[in-house]
TrEMBL record, chains A, B:
Keywords: Oxidoreductase
E.C. code: 1.-.-.-
Classification of source organism: Eukaryota, Viridiplantae, Streptophyta, Embryophyta, Tracheophyta
Record-given protein name: Putative oxidoreductase
InterPro entries registered for this protein in UniProt: ADH-like_C, ADH_N_2, ER, GroES-like_sf, MDR_fam, NAD(P)-bd_dom_sf
Gene3D superfamilies registered for this protein in UniProt: Medium-chain alcohol dehydrogenases, catalytic domain, NAD(P)-binding Rossmann-like Domain
Presence of keyword Oxidoreductase: yes
Domain Enoyl reductase (ER): 60-337
Organism this protein belongs to: Rosa chinensis
One Pfam family it belongs to: ADH_N_2
Signal peptide start and end residues: none
Any one GO MF annotation of this record: oxidoreductase activity, acting on the CH-CH group of donors, NAD or NADP as acceptor
Catalytic class of the enzyme: oxidoreductase
């Protein structure tokens, strides 16, 4: 059994913001739909692929990171939801649904199974295993609960608030009884935050000439927790508006990843005067909490207490556009690519 | 009984680095050596005054800080060691030695007693109550033990390492079994760190054209703990050299206090990739630990396990020069002014 295996090729290391031309959709490659005997590997059909900002870091030729760079000339890699087609591994059987790192292509041969999860299918959309129940959702859960030390009644700012991580942070904060304001980059997203995701308020940072003044308007009492998904100017403005013993969870710095010389953060002296704890984290340090996370979030979702917004692109051909859109904020909600429908 | 009461007057709010001309030594004022009846106050003779970088913050007209600004036309205030001359407060008797906030003058009338400590005199120099046993020493103790979460064998960088705080941080780290390297601003200080204060190594940052390269040389394995007394470029270089799960205690930002537009910190993305906790603190949040601190540090000092270096200026006339010297790093060790000898 052979099939065509369309791929999204990483053309080479880049500087600055990713462009669609940094990736190339290659058709006409064929693949044997068999896992080689004795390999312990298994062959999957990819159903959904996840577009995540951290992937930008793998597009640089920098080997000292927590993740190795992508290989030029090879397909991108990322989180996906896939179905096993053929297997030389007794733990994974044809038909099994899995979530984990896979290739940006129609079919992938999976050799490393350490971080794969088998999906127990129920009435939750399969693609949610890339967002709400996947790495971004877990990032929100671990970052908010374990890094922010949140307490009922506290004032919480979330940036990139309608994104894959931010939307869950805000909802978890609301469920705890916090006052939550989200920052995002369009009026449509602001509307989503206010009316669908249940934030107390939201604003479009692009319409705020003075972020410090904006934060003073939305947080006259100051900010206890800033869940920082962007870095840069918003971080500097938040530092000016933190309350005493505030906490900043440093989750992503989308605004800085693309710049070789970002403007720099100028207001760190507030860390001292306000005794702020600012902490970077990676969800991978908290994987022991993953089972509890799944249980909690699935339960909340099934009770209708949380919702999750996805931006779904159709087909591998749309992958370069979907990925690049992350960095201009074009996506609304978690960006996913549907490679194939689950049958 | 009247006496002359020489004073060091704060002339007015300043921008930039303090200059000697921002202060004025005023002679010819006289004071009654009596505490007014019914005032609950007491009159002290000031013996030693402490020069501390935080005082720069009180020279700005900024009322939103954790400390109020100095009053133009009035004497500076700061930590001092004083002796009670006359008292209307039954808890403080003539002859008592106290340590706490007093005026930069020969005699002060003290009304607020909340943060005063009575000094039990023993064989420790009285002036040490401004440094080793005072606010700077306690800053080192609380910051290192409570903020840095230090463990035996860890790699520790201390900036402004021969200063009032840094010299104790380094010695506490050595006593715990850490590898400690200090940064300071002259070869004389480097010598002090290496040969008197027991640091494993030390360097003169002014002779290092590339701080990142310097840190890579002194910490080929990376830095677990950075006790940051300076901010600025050293902080940016340290961020590049932190180890995974490193900790940065943000204690002072001498290099930033004087600048209206510091260059900015550019390497905060390391907080994420290395999961660093960066925490500002003030010693005043940890005052419940003060009794234990005194007991611990006095014991260590009496056993000869720690030493403490002071830079002593003689006479109130030298106060402007002593204070200003802090900001050019002219002092070697804790800067103190002797106003009068204890008799």
């Amino acid at each position: 059994m052979e099939a065509e295996n369309k791929q999204v090729i990483f053309k080479g290391f880049i500087e600055g913001t990713p462009k669609e031309t940094d990736l190339q959709v290659m058709a006409g490659i064929s693949i044997k739909l068999k896992a080689p005997k004795g390999s312990g590997a298994f062959l999957v059909k990819n159903l959904y692929l996840s577009c995540d900002p951290y992937m930008r870091g793998r597009m640089r030729d920098f080997r000292d990171s927590y993740l190795p760079p992508f290989v030029p000339g090879k397909p991108l890699e990322g989180f996906g939801v896939s179905q096993v087609v053929d297997s030389d591994n007794p733990s994974f059987k044809p038909g099994d649904l899995i979530s984990g790192i896979t290739g940006w292509e129609e079919y992938s041969l999976i050799r490393r199974t350490e971080q794969l999860r088998k999906i127990k299918q129920d009435d939750i959309p399969l693609s949610f295993h890339l967002g709400l129940l996947g790495m971004p959702g877990f990032t929100a859960y671990a970052g908010f609960n374990e890094v922010c030390s949140p307490k009922k009644g506290e004032y919480v700012l979330v940036s990139a608030a309608s994104g894959a991580v931010g939307q869950l942070v805000g909802q978890l904060a609301k469920l705890l009884g916090c006052h939550v304001v989200g920052s995002s980059g369009s009026s449509q997203k602001v509307d989503l935050l206010r009316n669908k995701l249940g934030f107390d308020d939201a604003f479009n940072y692009k319409e705020e000439p003075d972020l410090d003044a904006a934060l003073k308007r939305y947080f006259p009492q100051g900010i206890d927790i800033y869940f920082d998904n962007v870095g840069g100017e918003m971080l500097d403005a938040a530092l000016l508006n933190m309350r005493i013993h505030g906490r900043i969870a440093v989750c992503g710095m989308v605004s800085e990843k693309n710049l070789s010389d970002p403007g720099g953060i100028h207001n760190l002296y507030n860390l001292i005067t306000k005794r702020i704890r600012m902490q970077g984290f990676l969800q991978s340090d908290y994987l022991h909490l993953y089972p509890r996370f799944l249980e909690d979030v699935i339960s909340l979702y099934k009770q209708g207490k949380i919702v999750y917004v996805e931006d779904m692109n159709e087909g591998l051909e749309s992958a370069p556009s979907a990925f690049v859109g992350l960095f201009s904020g074009r996506n609304i909600g978690k960006q996913v690519i549907r490679v194939a429908r689950y049958e």
